[in-house]
């Protein structure tokens, strides 16, 4: 999908054409429409399917930037196509890169064409969670008690970094090969978690912090004595190949972007837990009104 709507130019040729369009010899073929601060007006934010913290942050920035005059489009996609698209300017930015573990493979592959705008949350953690009254407290004990969980471990998207870590590290290290590892989507996992909670049944799911599920469900993280899920990570914003050139002001805003987990939980809860609507615009507007001082600081 074409990301930018470029102004048409006259084919005048040579230096005259460059002067009329404002281009340089090494620049684009036409001048993009800009907002008052000089940034390109059209912005495409890539959003990982099912990653609620990224959805929340992206919806927040969409609302903030549209107030500044930007035209913002959120495009939902799986993880791998996002990084490929960033490297070719099909997307402008993604706000949900977990480092140094979960998405490191993609940064190794595409990082030379991307720009790291820094971490806005430092509390990200991959987990395996169970109901709080489950008969185990550690991944080391899960295999021996697999029957209590109907021999099922419920995962999320097959292309996710969490799935890769679970498949390549957690399952073989803790001998969970005898359990059925079910992958589909984050909404499907949450539906399974809801059903098990309502039925007062044991359940084991792949999850992560920060996530609103920790406020919505009586669950606990299983201990990871071998450290297969890694330490806490940072959630980074990554710009695409031409991001700094096209969005110098926004680049600075995102470099200064910080959001602690409690604040993020409150936004996620408002969007995904306290309201049934998937029309996030009015919900985010109300959250902004309730947190106006913080929101104003994002572009100060």
UniProtKB/TrEMBL annotation:
Record keywords: Cell membrane, Membrane, Signal, Transport
Signal sequence, renumbered to the chain: 1-19
InterPro entries in the record: ABC_Gly_betaine_transp_sub-bd (IPR007210)
Main location, first listed in the record: membrane
SUPFAM superfamilies given in the database record: Periplasmic binding protein-like II
Protein origin, superkingdom: Bacteria
Localization in the cell: Cell membrane
Gene3D superfamilies in UniProt: Glycine betaine-binding periplasmic protein, domain 2, Periplasmic binding protein-like II
Pfam families for this protein: OpuAC (PF04069)
Protein name in UniProt: Glycine betaine ABC transporter substrate-binding protein
Naturally occurring in which organism (per UniProt): Agromyces tropicus
